[in-house]
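#help-structures
NK: newbie question, is this the right format to request a structure? protein is NPH3 domain-containing protein
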Amino acid sequence: MKFMKLGGRPDTFFSPSESARSVYTEVTTDLQILVGNCLYHLHKFPLLSKCLLLQALCAEPGSAGDGEVIELAGFPGGAEAFEACAKFCYGITITVSARNLVPLRCAAAHLGMSEAADRGNLAAKLDSFLASCLLRRWKDALAVLHSTRHGAPLCEELGLTSRCVDAVAVLIASPANAMPAKSTSASPWWAHDVAELGVDMFWRIMVAVKSTGAVHEKTVGDALKAYARRWLPNVAKDAEQPFDDAGAIAAADDSVKQVTTRHRLLLEKIVSLLPVDKDAVSCAFLLKLLKAANILSASAASKAELVRRVAWQLEEASVGDLLIPSVSCVSDMLYDVDAVAAILDEFALRHAAATAQPAQPPAAGSPDDDSPARSGGHRRSRSDESVGFDGARRSSSAAPVSQYALARVGRLVDAFLIEVSKDPNLPVDKLLAIAEAVPDSARPEHDGLYKVVDSYLKAHPEMSKSARKRLCRVLNCRKLSEKACSHAAQNELLPLRVVVQVLFFEHARAAALSGGPVASDSDLPSNIKALLSSKSAGSEDDDADRVDEQRLRALASGASPGDDWSVEGLRRAASKIATLRMKMEEDEDDDEEFVRKAGLSRSASLRFRAFCALPTANPKRMLSKLWPLARSITADRH
């Protein structure tokens, strides 16, 4: 650390009493100055020749007569700084370094020790030493900057703080002149030292660094992460706080509200410093900031900026990053799904903006050579209706989304929904909003979405039929794999319509693979269509409906409970559904007459029993009645 010595005389100050200081001299002292609790007995001539303040005070009538004491209340730097200034006036040697330059400079300014009082005065010498030596060395510049937190208003007025901030920024931008210590982490060499500063000072340095344009934005992002790691983990701890530059040192008994306020300020400052480049900070770091913003009740602007930035690089996130704890007092949900929904709205807006732009030829060797996928038929984003973009934001949101990124987001959202679907307090509307926010092209298959539905049905067994049907509408049975179809055919939690659709589409897929005609929805037998129609319209007999569902599942799937998620079970299911279709097509001409003569009602449950099952009570008696009836129907036809 550099230092400077001023004056050449030996130190002759002494303490005649515990609270008094004087100087050895043959001349009697004629000036008494009280600084704090210390009374100085000095001489007018050496002090008044260099201090404009003392000249003015002594010129006032009766202010410095015999026995009168001049009190300097609130003197910057206290008695120690005043004594150093007095020694300079006497020509006694004083040592100036980065540790005491700021209080000495503030004291000299308060006393008026400028060039107007005397040539080569203390203030000019301190400014010269600061500019020529201290601000050119990294450690010295930081030490001077640290000391400006004491007497911050006067330091700002004198320009000391701004000079130190600019000097530190220049040293960061020109590391060859700073001679820093070796860095032992992935953070830049200067991040650890700057992280010890108060939040206001840190913010000013980072703004100055970014304004130079000489530091890569990834480096700025690493410094922000280092600062956040240094202070944000102490949200609920009584630890040292980086807010000394505001003059408010946190006491050990600070209330939670005060600590929260300080950390909220820190978080909002960090958010305001986030670099523009997409890869400057990781998506995981942004989501950690968003979690902290929820806990600290940060401003809506900070949350919105974090949501936008996360949506910009959502494909880099993991499921654990998206599990944001809920801090709402009006909801019992475990996770903040509204924040994730807002992120997906921004992502949908980014995707829509990119697909709306004219196709641009990809750059050679670009990892995103694929043209952006179309958004398909997903619902319109709320952000698309309410958010306006300025130039920078519009360009970032319109960044092209590759098909690879879309697929990653689709898998990420499905994995997230599987986790949150286990929450018994999660409303189905919120789950559907998140599931539908993903573009259709992001899900080449719906196995993950089927697991979401299955998990939600297991966690909410009390769901009504209408709610289950509404939940299952997000599924596209054509996009289910063989394994998922096999499981769905045996899933008693699914509505009957979904089970029939799964089996039919699986049969159609098997027929297409075998070279047969490809089936469509219109190929369903009329009795199956009537059954599904009656099911969708509702049934008056819920117990009969449940029996119908069980029988149709058993007849159509032909799988035992032990075949859960087995391919062999799927093959048996495909075979059974083909047999079922053939049987129902043969009986299609006879079923209406049979039902009329048998006196059966038009309810879905009775119609199902007529088509798909034999009576379980007195089968021989029922058969004896059915055979003559069948013969009579044949005779009538002839």
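mod (FA): yep, format's fine, and the tokens are attached above. The longest helix spans residues 567-587.
NK: thank you!
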